[in-house]
């Protein structure tokens, strides 16, 4: 990727609080008009990374670049970014219009232009006609849209969003995910989004940055992150997985669950310990007489679009997702094609990559 296409570059970012390192050599670039999600469990450093981009925190070491210019020491109001937090911080004494217009009034924008821009934002967030209402008359979802409109009306080049849907119920959250993605595409603004919700990241993002313990474990588009996780942590954090201990006998041949399986991976050495990752939907239930493995269905759950079955072979128990239900207690065969067996180094042996 050409350097001039980068809007934001983080180079060697480290951050310490009271001697504790919370970010460890973060290297990341964000392109113009990209929807980038920082994803990881609580305490992984994703919000700190966002705050460093926004200028609310300064790195202990490393540099932040915006369109090639070093801005690490620049305060937030001098950066071409706006932020939407989980707590919307709307002004309770102002109505909806005045909340949205607040930043424009500070900039002494002419009143006619303010009205035009506020009308456009109300239309964009589907709240036309709500301008005169006070914010305490709005639902949580409506307040969240006003917070986004207030940030977007200033026409930032980058919108930073720190778990903005965290306070919403599940149905509204899913609706807002789609709306946010549509807004981002309509406006052509770069979004950098923080969440611990894997489904949210997969639904909305162009690029996902998976973080853990202050490090970046993997960067990629949603399909790559899901289909080709860099390690067992990413595989387990993004979606559901069967993660098993195995032995790489040689290139393209792995032993796990008491059986040798052909796979497509190589370069792990011979007779080397590995983690084997298999998605539940990639396990085929077949007749007991034609399976690579045989097992007994221990439990069955209906999950709406598929059945989730736990199948024990005696040596291991597999989680299997299938649209065809096998009754509890029945004997079945299990087949796994080579392409659906993902081999990776055991986590404790792995130094996570920052790229």
Question: Summary?
Answer:
The chain has 355 residues and is of the alpha+beta class. The protein is built from 8 helices and 20 strands. The chain has helices at 46-54, 96-106, 111-124, 140-152, 170-187, 198-204, 222-227, 232-237; strands spanning 6-17, 20-31, 35-39, 61-66, 69-70, 81-84, 158-162, 190-195, 207-212, 215-220, 242-250, 253-256, 259-262, 272-278, 284-286, 293-302, 307-312, 317-322, 331-335, 342-344.
Task: Provide the descriptors you would attach to this structure in a database record.
disordered C terminus; six-stranded mixed β-sheet; elongated; alpha+beta; 24% helix; five-stranded antiparallel β-sheet; 8 helices; 2 domains; Rossmann fold; 355 residues; OB fold (Dihydrolipoamide Acetyltransferase, E2P)
Q: Provide the CATH architecture of the largest domain.
A: 3-Layer(aba) Sandwich
Give the DSSP E fraction (strand runs of 2 or more residues): 25-35%
Strand order in space, largest sheet? 6-7-8-3-9-10
| Count of helical stretches | 8
Mean pLDDT: 90
The CATH topology label of the largest domain is: Rossmann fold
| Oligomer classification | single chain
Quick one: CATH class of the largest domain?
Answer: Alpha Beta
How many structural units, i.e. domains?
Answer: 2
**CATH superfamily descriptor of the largest domain:** P-loop containing nucleotide triphosphate hydrolases
Count every beta strand, where a strand is a DSSP E run of 2 or more residues: 20
Structural class, from secondary structure content?
A: alpha+beta
Q: What is the general shape?
A: elongated
List SSEs in N-to-C order.
EEEHEEEHHHEHEHEEHHEEEEEEEEEE
- In whole angstroms, the N-to-C terminal distance is 13 Å
Poorly predicted sequence stretches spanning 5 or more consecutive residues:
349-355
Q: Portion of residues in helices?
A: 10-25%
The radius of gyration is 24 Å
Give a short account of the largest sheet.
Answer: 6 strands, mixed
């Amino acid at each position: 990727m050409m350097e001039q296409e980068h809007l934001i570059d983080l180079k060697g970012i480290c951050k310490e609080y009271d001697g504790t390192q919370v970010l460890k050599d973060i290297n990341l670039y964000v392109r113009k008009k990209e929807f980038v999600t920082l994803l990881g469990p609580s305490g992984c450093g994703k919000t700190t990374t966002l705050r460093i981009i926004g200028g609310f925190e300064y790195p202990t070491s490393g540099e932040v670049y915006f369109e090639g210019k070093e801005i690490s020491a620049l305060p937030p109001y001098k950066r071409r970014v706006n932020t939407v937090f989980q707590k919307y911080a709307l002004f309770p004494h102002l109505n909806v219009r005045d909340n949205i217009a607040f930043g424009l009034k500070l900039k002494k924008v002419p009143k006619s232009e303010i009205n035009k821009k506020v009308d456009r934002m109300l239309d964009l967030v589907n709240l036309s006609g709500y301008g005169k209402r006070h914010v305490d008359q709005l639902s949580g979802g409506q307040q969240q849209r006003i917070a986004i409109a207030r940030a977007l009306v200033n026409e930032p080049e980058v919108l930073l969003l720190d778990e903005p849907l965290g306070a919403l119920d599940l149905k509204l959250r899913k609706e807002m995910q789609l709306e946010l993605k549509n807004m981002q595409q309509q406006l052509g603004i770069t979004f950098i989004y923080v969440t611990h919700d894997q489904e949210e990241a997969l639904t909305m993002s162009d690029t996902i940055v998976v973080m853990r313990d202050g490090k970046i474990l993997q960067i990629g588009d949603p399909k790559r992150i899901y289909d080709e996780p860099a390690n067992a942590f990413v595989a387990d954090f993004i979606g559901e997985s069967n993660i098993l201990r195995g032995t790489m006998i040689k290139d393209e041949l792995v032993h796990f669950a008491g059986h040798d399986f052909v796979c497509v991976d190589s370069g792990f050495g011979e007779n080397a310990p590995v983690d084997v990752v298999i998605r539940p939907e990639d396990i085929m239930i077949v007749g007991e007489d034609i399976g690579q493995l045989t097992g007994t269905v221990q439990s069955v759950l209906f999950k709406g679009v598929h059945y989730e079955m736990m199948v024990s072979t005696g040596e291991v128990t597999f989680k299997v997702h299938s649209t065809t239900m096998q009754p509890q207690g029945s004997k079945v065969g299990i087949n796994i094609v080579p392409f659906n067996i993902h081999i990776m180094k055991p986590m404790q042996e792995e130094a996570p990559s920052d790229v």
